[in-house]
Write a structure and sequence with these properties.
By secondary structure, this protein is α+β, with helices and mostly antiparallel strands. Helices cover 52% and strands 15% of the residues. The chain has 6 helices and 5 strands; from the N terminus they run αβαββαββααα. The strands form 2 sheets. It has a 3-stranded antiparallel sheet. Helix 2 packs across helix 4. 12% of the residues are buried.
Length: 218
């Protein structure tokens, strides 16, 4: 899908839907990013069939979000980019990394999916695969070599993975949630640097060292 077509769906209506089939699914993060810049929240991600995905967006009428949508329109009228990049702080002091709007959109979708479904369904699916492999190994008990191969290569690793999946997905969720929350705070002016002359700002009497780290704001 082309950007103008995506933007045309986010025209102020209360609800916008995108039904993506086949290779169109690769546009899902970009659609989510454009929706965010246009003042829409991703309400649901549905799979009507194995080959299609439906994204459902609702308009967010809160003042900060409407301001963000207006800023997007002003940026486009001035010839600026549709999707800006963001310099996110890293674990190393005084360093940042560029995060694309699509990367942030992927994080948002991951957070929404985890909060809606958790990790239980995926862990159960892998556990069932492991159980199936154990069953196959049992059928092959008259062929010890083949049975052992199924156990070592498939059954046991899948069983271990099923146990660890909730921990892995929780860690992945927390990482994405922190990234999204930090971005949103900075976009609304809640996480940026203080205005010049205020306590803690560069060179002010309240600043302990006269400078700020790059990760404190943009």
């Amino acid at each position: 899908m082309k950007d103008p077509e995506i933007l045309s769906r986010f025209d102020g209506r209360g609800r916008a839907e995108f039904l993506l089939g086949g290779l169109e699914g690769r546009h899902s993060d970009r659609i989510t990013a454009i929706g965010f810049e246009s003042g829409y929240d991703l309400q649901a991600t549905e799979m009507p069939s194995k080959s299609t995905i439906r994204l459902v967006f609702v308009r967010n009428d809160s003042p900060p979000v409407r301001q963000r949508a207006r800023q997007t329109q002003e940026r486009l009228r001035a010839g600026g980019p549709l999707l800006p990049t963001w310099d996110a702080p890293t674990a190393r002091p005084c360093t940042t990394r560029s995060v694309t709007a699509e990367e942030l959109a992927s994080a948002r979708r991951g957070v929404a999916t985890y909060e809606a479904n958790g990790a239980k369904k995926f862990a159960l699916f892998v556990a069932l695969l492991s159980a199936g492999c154990f069953a196959v190994a049992g059928v092959l008990r008259d062929r010890p070599g083949a049975a052992l191969a199924v156990l070592v290569v498939f059954a046991v690793p899948l069983a271990v993975t099923a146990v660890l999946i909730p921990r892995w997905m929780k860690r992945w969720y927390e990482k994405n949630r922190r990234l999204v929350e930090l971005h949103d705070r900075q976009r609304t002016g809640q996480g940026g640097p203080p205005p010049p002359g205020s306590p803690g700002s560069p060179g002010s009497p309240g600043s302990p060292d006269g400078h700020r780290h790059a990760g404190d704001g943009q």
